Amino acid sequence: MAEDNSGSGKTVGFALVGTGMIAGFHARALADVPEARLVAVVSRDTAKARAFLDKQPNGRNAFATASLAEALARPDVDAVIITTPSGAHLDPALLAAQAGKHVVVEKPLEISAQRCDQIINACQKHGVKLATIFGARFGDANRELKIAVDSGRFGRLTLAEAACKWWRSQEYYDNGGWKGTQALDGGGALMNQAIHVVDLLLWMMGPVESVCAFTGILAHERIEVEDTAVAALRFRSGALGVIHAATSVYPGLPRTLAVHGDKGTVVIEQEDLVRWDFLQENERDAEIRDRFAKKTGASGGSSDPAAISHLPHARQLADFVRALNSHGKPLVDGKEGRRSVELIEAIYASAHDGRVVRPGCDK
Fold it and tell me: How far is CA 105 from CA 86, 87, 305, in A?
């Protein structure tokens, strides 16, 4: 890592692997992190990588290549961000770890818990840090909710709801190449779109004891994975929960997370705080409600996948740089990233077999 003239830490050089839509969010996010620098972009076509860099505010001096090995051999590359299709995360992650480069993987970490484990184990073996992108954890409202959960303000947690009722057109799947395929998407509305709110649900409520689910392909053709799913959960704490996931709901609704207990309720739509009610008020409650009183109405990609903000990515990449410079732990490491994949696998198994499934115990 190079010295950072600001004196706040060492500059971390990143290589981006992949040039799809989400790679653009990462490039813009890196430009917002003072201690991060975009060093290289890897694509199967060098010209495509160069064209991608020409569109980025921080791409002028970056290196374009079709060879991951060439990028990994560069001493100014400290970390790799993998933005390939979901089912193609494993191989570049293993190669990066073997080369001694730190690894950031766009969600999901991989499309099965077993493949997630291979990435986690490789990073541990080679002594490099690993993070999974779940930018929703860095949203202000979600952070306040997490503090309230951890401080016991809900009393006994009783019920939680996670909803990602979005819309994707048939053209989205037809033009996506890998989207809607089992091999590279690994699943549909749950694995691709709703996984963000699934991660939030687990972050707030803890591990799931058992799940019962139904999935279907109801509004699209020529896809191999679900566009509609519902699941009922029992958490290890005894609380119950539900998940709604869809790309079949026109025109698409804001992602919603609700946490309930016998002493409180909080409901968040995308980044908007809809309810913040506790039996026992404290001095911060009024300030929190005032702070979030002006709703942004952000869609968060409910109907347009390009309509998300790069700012959550910037916050998470800043956290990753902090972890590297402080020899600490990223907030969302590989093990955290694995949890949502394991739960979604259990949901798929339940829907396929028509039975209650215990995540991590039986598939």
Answer: 9, 12, 18
